[in-house]
Specification:
The complex is a heterodimer of chains A (340) and B (379). Chain A has 340 residues and is of the alpha/beta class. Chain A has 14 helices and 14 strands. Chain A has helices at 2-18, 25-33, 59-72, 88-93, 108-112, 155-166, 179-187, 198-208, 236-254, 262-265, 271-277, 283-287, 293-300, 304-311, and strands spanning 36-41, 49-50, 56-57, 78-83, 99-100, 116-118, 123-125, 127-132, 146-150, 171-175, 193-197, 215-217, 225-227, 230-232. In chain B, 73% of the residues lie in helices and 1% in strands. The chains are: A alpha/beta (340), B mainly alpha (379). At the A-B interface, helix 1, strand 2, strand 4, helix 4 and helix 7 of A face helix 5, helix 10 and helix 15 of B.
Chain lengths: 340, 379
């Protein structure tokens, strides 16, 4: 792994120094070749994974499809490049892919030193704790002295150490390399608590617990993981399109526009709905795409809420609650800027 | 003839067994007593023997019945993940439900007959090549034609078959294609490298030595990593070379370096007199190598060569780090679904069976080949 890191860092440094910075290059190149090349995860259910029929599905995959729908009016004009964690940033920097939607956490160093631009967070994740209900614990603050199951060598382990130290508490880690063994260790009662990203905790609870209601995910989050699609530095027009394609999904949810009612909504009297769907033209021209761009996104991919429920929410096997990913009007963080 | 000894030994061993058996039958009545006699002599012949036998039996008793109960008796053969969680045994329903993803990766679902047919053609060609009666020039043409048909099937784009780019190839066909092409291309390259290393021309020798030592000094993952991550950084923006091709070239270059050393071992084992005799006949360098030296050298090193082939076959699972779905990566993708995630053991067992059957075929084939080609040494 150290070798990977060294190589990746070397790759990052060479490319960041030599990247051309002429505006519009990626936008024009994507338009000319006729499809979006999108980097995704090799297999993370709910975010990007092939389904039974080998079709890509997930929240990240929908972000790629939305951009294709905005650019070409066809959400199918995407080619997916599955990438490992080591490969993802160099693949974007070398121009092998046009955008990266691979459950990537937005951090300062990635945003600056790596020569990348993050678009809009599509999923706010964070590390949390799951405990058996019969333990009677209601807050992570009560976990002093607990044994905690955690994957070794990840940021999860580091976050855990930091958080317990900051709160002047202690814990006994049970580190197990394999994810599957780790979860079975927790369910067989070897640890008081299991710590990982809450999206993962929810998935494990929904699918591997004998009775999901016996387990509780504690309210505290000990890390911030805003999972965000990324593009390269150097093409602001492309960044704008990726950014507004995702905002269009969020705004559509706020305005109640869904893939089912989008055609009726075209005649809505609401001026912002008109601007979003292109009934009042202008936005498409500013972005350099067809005026129907957002209509195509909602029609073919759906609004953010639809995508969320289908991939990670109640309509999926993960059964994740909206939580931080609800609209701002429902206590979440999803807040689209005005479409003016 | 240097290795005459071991061959003679095994040959007489086989002959001795052939002779002994009829005589044993004539001395003892047929049926169970013969088995008992054998058991008494071999399993309970002495105190240590008896102890070892009892320990082995106890171990088998501990392992085999629970395994059979898990794998067969209490196994769940159909249904969904919920049904599997209720079952006590293995969840083979996973393989039933998700085998198409495991075998073909993200290849378009309604086109799966194409990789299936391509795999069948490839396996048929492999099986045909294992029969000595078919070792005729037409076999080479059959292979070339077979590759053409396979390429046509996999890519498509003609005869009403939609075009499928290599990014979407996956599973077993990808593993087999990488292994067979990798071996087929690495083998000639390795012979050239081995001859180069023994060449009397300093530049060629230095190049071969440097190449072999350099490649052997780095692990395959880093070769693949260089090919997939670093290499594109040096290309102009927008220019990309097919990912599958990059991985294949990486594997060929890597395997060739290892094979070259095995081949060189064979070359060194051929007595100097053979080359001198060829020189005396006035053969050119290439004819001397082709007719006299290489046939003897390669026959001597069949075991290490097949060893390398098998490891090349298994190394194909490393291409997952460059984002290709080989059999193992496709199996992992099939296990990404949380409904099936608890049944990872069954998924990996299924994949292991596929790997094992191909490796076992290669290993048996090499033993048979060795036997076939050793005829000149049996006297």
């Amino acid at each position: 792994m150290t070798l990977f890191k060294t190589l990746a860092v070397a790759a990052v440094l060479t490319s960041a120094a030599s990247l051309p910075a002429h505006a519009g290059a990626t936008f024009d190149a994507v338009k000319a070749k006729g499809f979006v090349q999108c980097g995704v995860n090799l297999g993370l259910y709910g975010f990007s994974a092939p389904d039974d029929k080998g079709n890509w599905a997930g929240l990240d995959v929908d972000a790629c499809r939305a951009v294709a729908a905005a650019m070409f009016g066809d959400a199918g004009k995407v080619k997916f490049t599955p990438l490992s964690a080591q490969q993802r940033l160099p693949a974007l920097q070398s121009g092998e892919i046009d955008m990266l939607a691979r459950n990537t956490t937005w951090t300062l160093s990635r945003d600056t030193a790596n020569g990348l631009n993050f678009a809009v967070t599509t999923y706010y994740d964070g590390q949390g704790f799951m405990v058996p209900r019969k333990l009677g614990v209601k807050s992570a603050k009560e976990l002093d002295g607990a044994t905690i199951c955690v994957l070794p060598g990840t940021t999860s382990e580091q976050n855990l150490t930091d958080w317990f130290r900051a709160n002047k508490m202690s814990y006994k880690p049970v580190v197990i390399e394999k994810n599957e063994e780790l979860t079975s260790a927790f369910f067989s009662g070897r640890c008081d608590s299991f710590s990982s990203d809450t999206s993962q905790l929810a998935a494990v609870r929904a699918n591997e617990a004998a009775n999901p209601d016996d387990y509780l995910i504690l309210p505290e989050l000990i890390s911030r993981e805003p999972l965000t699609p990324v593009v390269r530095h150097g093409d602001d027009q492309w960044l704008d399109l990726v950014r507004w394609s995702i905002y269009a999904m969020i705004a559509a949810e706020e305005k109640g526009i869904t893939s089912k009612n989008v055609d009726q909504m075209l005649t809505s009297p609401d001026p912002e709905v008109k601007r979003i769907l292109g009934a009042t033209p202008g936005n498409g021209q500013s972005l350099g795409v067809d005026e129907k761009w957002a209509y195509n996104i909602v029609k073919q991919v759906g609004n953010y809420g639809e995508s969320f429920e289908r991939n990670v929410g109640m309509g999926s096997k993960l059964k994740v609650e909206r939580g931080l990913n609800a609209l701002y009007s429902h206590g979440g963080l999803m807040y689209p800027p005005p479409f003016k | 003839m240097i290795d005459r000894q071991p061959h003679d030994h095994s040959a007489t061993g086989v002959a001795a067994a052939d002779v002994e058996e009829p005589s044993a039958v004539s001395l003892q009545p047929p049926g169970p007593p013969r088995l008992l006699g054998w058991a008494r002599e071999n399993l309970f012949g002495s105190v240590p023997n008896t102890v070892m036998t009892l320990l082995a039996l106890a171990l088998l008793w501990e392992v085999v019945p629970p395994f059979l109960s898990w794998a067969l008796v209490h196994a769940q053969w159909g249904g969904d993940g919920a049904a599997c969680r209720q079952a006590e045994g293995a969840c083979w329903a996973l393989v039933g439900e998700r085998h198409r993803l495991m075998l073909f990766g993200v290849y378009p679902y309604d086109q799966h007959w194409r990789p299936l047919l391509a795999t069948a053609i490839l396996v048929t060609l492999l099986a045909t090549s294992a029969v000595r009666a078919f070792w005729r020039p037409w076999l080479l043409w059959a292979w070339l034609a077979g590759f053409a048909v396979i390429a046509l099937l996999m890519w498509g784009g003609v005869l009403g078959m939609p075009y499928v780019e290599t990014d979407m190839w996956g599973g077993l066909p990808l593993t087999l294609a990488l292994a067979v092409l990798g071996i087929a291309l690495a083998f000639p390259l390795s012979i050239v490298l081995a001859l180069g290393r023994r060449s009397e021309l300093p530049v060629i020798r230095a190049f071969s030595v440097a190449y072999i030592e350099l490649v052997r000094g780095i692990p395959l993952v880093s070769v693949l990593f260089m090919a997939s991550v670093m290499f594109p950084l040096f290309l102009p923006e927008g220019v990309t070379i097919d990912k599958l091709l990059r991985a294949l070239v990486g594997m060929v270059l890597f395997t060739a370096a290892y094979l070259a050393e095995a081949v060189r071992g064979g070359l060194q084992a051929v007595p100097r007199g053979q080359e001198e005799a060829a020189d005396a006949l006035g053969l050119s360098y290439w004819r001397k190598m082709r007719l006299i030296v290489l046939p003897q050298a390669l026959r001597l090193v069949i075991p290490p060569i097949v060893n390398q082939f098998i490891s090349c076959f298994k190394d194909t699972s490393l291409v997952t780090i460059v984002g290709l779905y080989d059999l193992l990566a496709a199996t992992k993708a099939a296990l990404a679904d949380p409904e099936w995630r608890p049944f990872f053991v069954e998924g990996y067992v299924a994949a292991a069976l596929v790997y094992w059957s191909f490796c076992f075929f290669m290993s048996r084939y090499s033993q048979w080949l060795e036997h076939q080609l050793a005829t000149g040494q049996k006297r």
